[in-house]
């Protein structure tokens, strides 16, 4: 399950709770589109903002609505104690895998991160994907640490945050990491604008926020890269450049995706947990135009 | 209560829960030493790692054991929803004030942070101290934003993270912020090695982690600065240089303070929530020597 397009849906919510109906529909939409896996409760799914009970409920809804598509559940939390409980909940919900980021308040040391993954993987009976996201965790993995963690039991994939934009340099970066991790551990690219670059550079998976909202568009890119048509994948990616530019200007996908889901009627407004706010004003109007002109709907 | 030495004790804990006996004793120790206020559940108190129930319990113990010393309670959380509940709990526990940092997973915008503080201050009936700590929140306050938030109801102090080491530049920095905030809002310096510099530069308060462990030593520095003896304050501060150097090498106070509390028998080992670990090995041995040579015990 750690190859191809892994789609990370939003978890629509407001101050009163999760919109379980909208969430179930988002998940079914991904299964219908034929994504290779679903990443429930990733960063796009606002996992860090939910209570343990809300996360267990969300995990159950994701598994129930994913059909035959395997579901990976985010179990990141500040404390090892809480991650162990969330791992239990995810397994009870029927998850096929879990995703773990070294979430921090106090910046973590490499030794602390290693011990954290060691404690969690020791208690798992399903595969784990290492979630490397320095923008939200404030922790920078070294390749050496990735190599050590990748050898722990149950580790099957690494979700990396991005890479150089130059194709040669991107390939060199993936090769460097590949040389340090076992063959049974896949590498997946995240940061959506790196999608085609990452797949073309040898990443087996694309862990994609926008795949959670526009699965057909991103599957087309994924399939082109998977059959070795690097140029087609790059061109399809380049067509979406105005969207990636908007995301870059907003400092990330979440607030833009939330607005897109609201514009498309896939989530009620607001759908993010305060203090987070979907983009509004001229940026939102521009997004509405892009959804139309890029035929994303 | 937003002047002088505000001491931020550890909340000793392990994977099973909070060591309430050790915590109560730490708080009583601060009250006996005569600190000007107690910052319970600050970063030193690992607030972000505790459940709502644990935080309410800790707040109650702090207030019960602080005697006549006013207690400020940290109410930071990722969601506005949760901060509002934590504010209620703190007020029910008898807190004299609350401390709020814009905790983040997704990096926050200035607009989001302002709305967050607006929602929380609107619902408060006790004073609030704005907690500016970019190292843990990944949010950088501008002075302009501090100025806007300082005008919200109930805001009475700003805890700033540090300042230039040069006395002239430090004074200029405090003056710049002072010019943008109302007179009834005090400025307090944090980052312990800036203590004397900040007080000498015109900060009214020292929000101090190490004040939570070595209150008498840090009160001596505070009192010297408060009576205008800048040189005495600086010299007393300089005497502790080997401690500040150790803290800087460790990337912050928490893991060093935890080891010091363990070494002094004020907390059982371990006393931090995993994956955090107190310093160990040669660093810990060096710390033990410093506690003796600097007569900190």
At a glance:
The structure is a homodimer of 297-residue chains. Chain A is of the alpha/beta class and 297 residues long.
Explain this structure to me?
The structure is a homodimer of 297-residue chains. With 297 residues, chain A is α/β, with parallel strands linked by helices. Chain A starts with a strand and ends with a helix. Chain A has helices at residues 20-33, 52-65, 80-92, 110-122, 134-137, 143-149, 167-178, 195-200, 215-226, 230-239, 241-249, 254-263, 282-293; strands at 4-7, 13-14, 17-18, 37-40, 71-74, 97-100, 128-131, 155-160, 186-189, 205-208. The longest helix of chain A has 14 residues, at 20-33. Chain A is globular. Chain A has a single domain (4-229), classed as Alpha-Beta Barrel (TIM Barrel). The first copy, chain A, is 46% helix and 13% strand. The mean pLDDT of chain A is 97. In chain A, the strands form two sheets. Chain A has an eight-stranded parallel beta barrel with strand order 1-4-5-6-7-8-9-10, surrounded by four helices. In chain A, strands 2-3 form a two-stranded antiparallel sheet. The A-B interface holds A 15, 43, 48-49, 78-81, 102-103, 105-109, 111-113, 115-116, 119, 135-136, 138, 251-252, 254-255, 273-277 and B 15, 43, 48-49, 78-81, 102-103, 105-109, 111-113, 115-116, 119, 135-136, 138, 251-252, 254-255, 273-277.
Keywords, please?
two-stranded antiparallel ribbon; 10 strands; 13 helices; alpha/beta; 8-stranded parallel beta barrel; TIM Barrel; 46% helix; homodimer; 13% strand; 297 residues; DapA-like (chains A, B)
């Amino acid at each position: 399950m750690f190859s191809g397009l892994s789609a990370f849906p939003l978890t629509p919510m407001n101050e009163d709770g999760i919109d379980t109906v909208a969430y179930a529909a988002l998940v079914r939409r991904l299964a219908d589109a034929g994504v290779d896996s679903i990443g429930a409760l990733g960063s796009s799914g606002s996992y860090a903002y939910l209570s343990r009970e809300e996360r267990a409920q969300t995990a159950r809804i994701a598994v129930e609505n994913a059909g035959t598509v395997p579901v990976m559940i985010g179990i990141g939390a500040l404390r090892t104690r809480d991650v162990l409980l969330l791992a239990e909940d995810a397994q009870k919900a029927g998850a096929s895998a879990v995703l773990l980021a070294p979430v921090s308040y106090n910046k973590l040391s490499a030794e602390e991160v290693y011990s954290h993954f060691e404690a969690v993987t020791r208690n798992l009976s399903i595969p784990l994907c290492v979630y490397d996201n320095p923008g939200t965790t404030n922790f920078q993995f070294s390749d050496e640490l990735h190599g050590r963690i990748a050898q722990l039991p149950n580790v099957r994939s690494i979700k990396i945050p991005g890479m150089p934009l130059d194709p040669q340099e991107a390939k060199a970066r993936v090769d460097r990491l590949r040389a340090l991790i076992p063959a049974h551990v896949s590498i997946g690219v995240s940061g959506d604008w790196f999608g085609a670059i990452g797949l073309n550079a040898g990443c087996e998976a694309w862990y994609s926020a926008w795949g959670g909202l526009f699965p057909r568009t991103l599957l087309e890119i994924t399939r082109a890269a998977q059959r070795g048509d690097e140029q087609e994948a790059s061109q399809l990616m380049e067509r979406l450049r105005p969207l990636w530019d908007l995301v870059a200007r907003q400092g990330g996908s979440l607030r833009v995706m939330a607005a897109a889901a609201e514009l498309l009627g896939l989530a009620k407004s607001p759908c993010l947990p305060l203090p987070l706010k979907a983009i509004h004003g001229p940026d939102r109007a521009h997004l509405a135009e892009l959804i139309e002109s890029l035929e994303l709907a």
